[in-house]
Design a protein that fits this description.
The protein is built from 10 helices and 9 strands. It is 38% helix and 18% strand.
């Protein structure tokens, strides 16, 4: 007989969150944390399972963070489904869900921002300039509220992972940042909440993205000059059926810097963002 997981405790106030965290701290328990914007899928569950394997208690947050969306972006359209999210989290081994409202995270009069350079520049930073400052601010606040020993971030958002590593080090936040490999479907498409927007025809196109990146990665690894590799991958994505491409870029894996001599002479990462209709997909892989 199947036993469903017990319902997940949900806290919405800072006081309730700190009371529970404080209790676990007094018991000497190790706390893992997975921040999310909800609309959870198997990719997120991989992060929860990773946290559960490394910590005694796992806290997830669901908060659609307004400071990382520009006015024209899909903040209002971003799917919200707390009951389903909580059931999935409980089943994957999460112990507590922190689901604050906007006023809890950004009380009236809040006036502090974080300006990011380094790995936040270029790529996503060119197309969504407000995003990484918003990510840095909300994640720093969540780290201060939850005070986790470790936090898990997916490699699908590779630039975000690098940004989080950077500000965690720069601000001396005592949190270990753990990278979790991208979860993919049977065709290799990176799992994403935005995949739900795709029609069956669009899904078929989307599932070719990782193949194009893999081929480009092989070319880059063989020593081909990177401008040619990037140009060919760009053309291949358009030919595959993507409507437009924001970028395809090979960068240094360590810090996302551009390779000065235009060949991948150190560990590298290929990153892309491309549109099918109104849906923007990102992916990346190690070279």
């Amino acid at each position: 007989m199947m036993h469903s997981a017990p319902p997940l405790p949900i806290v919405r106030s800072v006081a309730d969150l700190r009371a529970q965290i404080g209790e676990w701290r007094r018991q000497g328990l190790r706390i893992g944390f997975v921040p999310t914007m909800g609309a959870l899928h198997d990719g997120h569950m991989g992060l929860i399972r990773e946290a559960a394997s490394r910590a005694d208690r796992v806290v997830a947050s669901v908060f659609v963070n307004p400071t990382q969306f520009a006015p024209h972006e899909d903040l209002g359209r971003y799917p919200r489904q707390e009951a389903e999210d909580a059931a999935m989290l409980a089943g994957a081994g999460c112990h507590l869900l922190f689901a604050p409202d906007v006023e809890t995270m950004y009380p009236p009069g809040a006036a502090t921002t974080i300006a990011m350079a380094g790995p936040a520049l270029g790529l996503e930073g060119d197309f969504r300039p407000q995003m990484f400052g918003g990510v840095a601010l909300v994640v720093t606040k969540l780290f201060n509220l939850i005070q986790p020993d470790l936090a898990i971030f997916g490699e699908k958002d590779f630039q975000q992972l690098m940004v989080v590593r950077r500000f965690t080090a720069d601000l001396d936040l005592p949190v270990e940042i753990v990278a979790s490999p991208t979860e993919r479907d049977g065709w290799g498409l990176a799992l994403s909440s935005r995949n739900a927007y795709l029609s069956p025809e669009q899904l078929e196109i989307a599932r070719r993205l990782n193949g194009v990146l893999a081929e480009a990665g092989v070319a880059a690894a063989s020593g081909r000059p990177l401008p040619g590799v990037e140009k060919d991958a760009y053309a291949a994505l358009l030919k595959t059926g993507f409507d437009r491409i924001d970028y395809v870029a090979v960068r240094r894996a360590e810090d996302l810097a551009v390779f000065r001599n235009q060949v991948a002479d150190a560990p590298a990462r290929i990153l892309a963002a491309a549109w099918i209709g109104k849906t923007r997909l990102i992916d990346n892989m190690a070279i």
